[in-house]
Design goal:
Structural class: alpha/beta
Strand order of the largest sheet: 1-2-3-4-5-6-7-8-9
Number of helices: 10
CATH superfamily: Aldolase class I
Strand content: 15-25%
Number of strands: 12
Oligomer: single chain
Low-confidence stretches: 1-10, 309-313
Distance between the termini: 34 Å
CATH topology: TIM Barrel
Largest sheet: 9 strands, mixed
Shape: globular
């Protein structure tokens, strides 16, 4: 039982699952880690300004399990399975039946392979889902083998929270094999300094030793990491480990996530507070992913506020208008 629910119960927008490792980290009910994985009735509140597919991935999916939003990057939805389901996830529509649908991308490979072969402009493949590392080694390396057949020179990014949720999953044997599939990099999702445990540190050290570079991204979440000191501690820990922080994302405008959203004015102030406190290489971009405007929009200092009884509209450099909930 997890939070009074059996694993896989879907009374909310996505199923409930968490590893015993992470649950032990988040055992204090009001701890920021707990909020990320504890289901809330707020998830079932729909808002007119939020969406079930906020990044319009369905519209950019020419074949099942593949999303092609950026010309040179293909996103593969490897599996619906996660080690734990983050309550702020924007892929609720994809994951809603994750506990009952064992399908993986390997079951739909031929159309994907044909698409990748036909598009020479694709030079990078991002593995996501779900978490690709929930696949066992046999299936994971079968996928990597097939990818190398159709895209022998492509850079492969593996988006994962395994070092956070289940660090023992990443073994030296896996890393030794992965280093031979070069170039492969880990894109880690880390939101709070408490997620950087001794086991996490060991995974990073072993990954770098095996030649697997590590990058990170974080989501700015109300009540989790919307604090300057928390962000500074998180980013410095990653930086000292040799992880390259890339992005701090505003929470995507997904249904059931409004209670996680940090007002834009506060978000930009938190980002400004990083300057002077951290080395430049440790400061990620603050971004909002707007599918209608071509993808990630960098949020910088030139922000003006237009007050409205509805969620405020923010203008960046008078070139971009962002409607973001308060």
């Amino acid at each position: 039982m997890i939070f009074g629910l059996a694993k896989g119960d879907c009374l909310f927008r996505i199923p409930v699952r968490v590893t015993s490792f992470y649950q032990s980290l988040a055992q204090k009910a009001k701890h920021p880690l707990s909020k990320q994985i504890t289901p809330s009735e707020d998830e079932n509140c729909e808002h007119i300004d939020l969406h079930w597919d906020p990044l319009q991935e369905n519209a950019h999916s020419p074949v099942p399990y593949l999303v092609h939003r950026y010309p040179r990057i293909a996103l593969l939805l490897v599996t619906k399975q996660c080690f734990a389901y983050c309550r702020f996830c924007f892929r609720a529509g994809f994951l809603k039946d994750a506990e009952t649908d064992p399908t993986t991308i390997l079951d739909h490979w031929e159309p994907i392979a044909a698409y990748l072969r036909a598009h020479d402009e694709i030079g990078e493949v991002l593995l996501s889902g779900g978490d690709p590392l929930t696949l066992n080694d046999e299936r994971l390396f079968e996928l990597l083998r097939r990818l190398r057949e159709v895209k022998p020179k492509a850079r492969i990014r593996i988006g994962t929270r395994a070092p956070v949720f289940q660090p023992k999953r990443i073994t030296r044997a896996m890393l030794d094999r992965m280093g031979k599939v070069h170039p492969v990099v880990f894109y880690l999702h880390v939101n709070h300094p408490s997620e950087i445990t001794p086991d996490f540190e060991s995974v990073i050290q072993a990954s770098l030793k095996a030649g697997v570079m590590c990058y990170s991204q974080s989501v700015l979440l109300k009540g989790v990491n919307d604090d300057a000191k928390v962000l500074q501690t998180l980013l410095m820990k990653l930086y000292h480990l040799g992880v390259h922080p890339t992005y701090i994302h505003l929470c995507d405008m997904a249904q059931g996530t409004r209670h996680f959203m940090v007002p834009l004015k506060e978000a930009t102030q938190l980002w400004r507070d990083l300057w002077g406190a951290l080395p430049g290489a440790a400061i990620p971009h603050l971004v909002f992913d707007d599918a209608g405007k071509g993808g990630k929009i960098p949020l910088i200092d030139q922000v003006t506020v237009k007050h409205s009884p509805e969620p405020c509209i923010y203008s960046l450099n008078q070139k971009y208008v962002l409607k973001y909930p308060i």
